[in-house]
């Protein structure tokens, strides 16, 4: 695991407890305050992480909660834009829902459309961080990370999932129930981890069954993003964040489309991972990833812009230098009051020393961990890297 993954996991634990305790004591915890506490904790835990903000706070009323610029120390950078949403449990929806329907009065745009617009224009990946209370017996994700089950108190979902998987009513995407988003939500600590999370749904027969998330990650790494991925050290947490954020975007697409267009990758994956499998196991695994309608737009939309150090915007360079953003520097979306509330920079180079696991008993009974790369018939754990 990586040090960043451990820090994200611990913040998910504490945020979940705070949401639960806030409800008990009638001191409800909001999204903005929770985000600020999380970013403070991350900055204290990870010295390479710097946080900045624009001095004109009125420009940040409707933008993303934070914009994250990430490098592995090679002077190559990529960008994530993240919007936080707390699980709401009104009487009409006691099981919980996320308020995706929010519309911006000043621009007339839905918040998610504004997030998507900026991500597409800047070559960034757009994600939602979903904040959830600690609750016994409640699952917030169908995917379990190796760090422990309570990691799903903050999950990450690609904005593309909401845009592509949920219908619009009068031009607006409705609020999304918890039950409808579980299969697309990943414990956010897994974004920075070196192994892909697995699915808790009972698998088809045979050892080490293939899940859609694993296959999506495999195709992401093999195909259109290879040039982008190749600029980063595969043993760094930066690489993990890039691969996993793109994989989550791929989950917004069709499992059937993957099967039809990337069958050769499926055959390669299975031939390398488990040579000599009985044909009925292979057929069961292929069937398991063929369940939704198709879309032919996947990798055309997967391109990520990789920035050189000299190409970073002035406000990012200021934060990277741990200096205030100058008064005369504006964000590209400040004209519509949509600058992000916080700007983060992180250099996450490879490590040569292992990091301590989080202090939670791990129940791996239903968890199978896979490496990013499967190149021989070795044990999956042989490929675990020691990133930051």
TrEMBL record:
InterPro entries cross-referenced by the UniProt entry: DUF6615
Keywords: Plasmid
Pfam hit, one: DUF6615
Domain of life: Bacteria
Protein name per its UniProtKB record: DUF4365 domain-containing protein
Organism name: Rhodococcus qingshengii JCM 15477
